[in-house]
Please model this.
Amino acid sequence: MSALLAEIRKMRRRHDLLLAAAAALFVMVWASNGKVNMEDSQGYSSLFYSIPLMNTTVMPLAMAALSSRIWEIETKGGGCKLLFTLQSRRSVFLAKAAIGLSQVALVSLIECGAVAALGAFSGFSEPLSFRQLLWLGASTSSVCAMIYFGALLLSIRVENLAVVLSAGVIGSLSGLFSAFLPKQFSLLLPWGYFVPLSGMALHWDFETRTGFFEPYPFNFALLGAVIALALTLALLGRRLVERREA
Amino acid sequence: MLRETRAENMKLRRSAVWPVFFLLPLLSAVYGTFNYMQNLEILQHGWFDLWTQHTLFYALFFFAPMIAVYCAYLWRLEHLGHNWNLVMTAPVPRFRVYLAKCLAAARLAALTQVWVFALYVLMGKLCAGLPGCPPPQIALWLMRSLLGAFAVIALQSLLSMCVRSFAVPVLTALGGGILGMLFVARGGGTLWPYALVILGMNANRREDMMASGLLSYLAACALFVLLFCALAKLALEKRDVRA
Model:
């Protein structure tokens, strides 16, 4: 608990939560902008379809930025040596992981809250599916957590933030590409897992140039795999902190 | 000025920006070519259609963050330890340090566009098997986009100078790029610096978006560069940067 409080104190005036909130709000503004007829009968479905796609573009870089900033505090001042004499390495990592997960939770909460708020303000005629909303929250938070721990692992390993941020940019681009690749290829790129986990599909008719959204079966197996991967990356990160030379 | 630019270029030797320099355009080219090959029945304008696929996401979302990584990397050293004090006391006008960093980033951006063009030609010839040479307009669009890139460089360099964090300016560039796409879609591309690279590269379009608006594009590029340079000069001369 004291490690967590120390971590919260370190975050003062760094505006990391604000950054996470801004990333989520940006996705929502973009998603609502992409939707031309917000009042139509498929308003919510359209949001459930477009948010994962926009998350794929924004979140890999946003998560890389957040995780690099949380580790940057220790490396910039060269304070690791002193820090590890004051508290256990495990508690340092766990506190940082808890802060990271709170940022991820904030992103998911804002996105889910904004979907409901957008629907209420725009007067969607379609009823809001709470199963879809819950699924959006669960899939967004688990993929964000996985990317966050991957980027944190890289931050601890290389320290040079250019590498972490470059990986974030490359992750965003490859994730976005994977959304348009056949499914077997898209599963090779974890940054883009927002899209295969989406609970909404778009059926596009090239002849009439019209489309409609249809709920897609939730992929629980992939969600489980993402959570397992996030846990593995977190454990690897903890191990790296424990064995790291200060 | 040459000496300062040379010093900045030295910082880029064996630096961490080279993987992103090579990989990002390569990814974009591989995906673009793959997409082109998959949609040959719709895409029947050869080199021009290949260009639309190569620049589909690269120009819209990722060229600006790439520039942001270059600029943030160039300012990273100044933000470490007490190096700002060194910059402030060095026998070199402070504004020249900013200009030298902009020039170094501009050189990298130019090299990036050369790499993008080389990949476009290679993929067009070797993978897509397109006949003849690529149209000269494409090279012109790439050069034109460099002028837009100068405006983004001036802005990103200013942001990286003022914000100590490496990540925030890069994230800002991604947001700026996405907003740029919305500006271009609404016909206001010249009002937003990040939209200039999209307009310049003629991203995802076969017909030239700038056919009748080249003058306003050039004026916007020049104005933004001047504005951000003036702001940087003001920031460096009127207000001491916090070390």
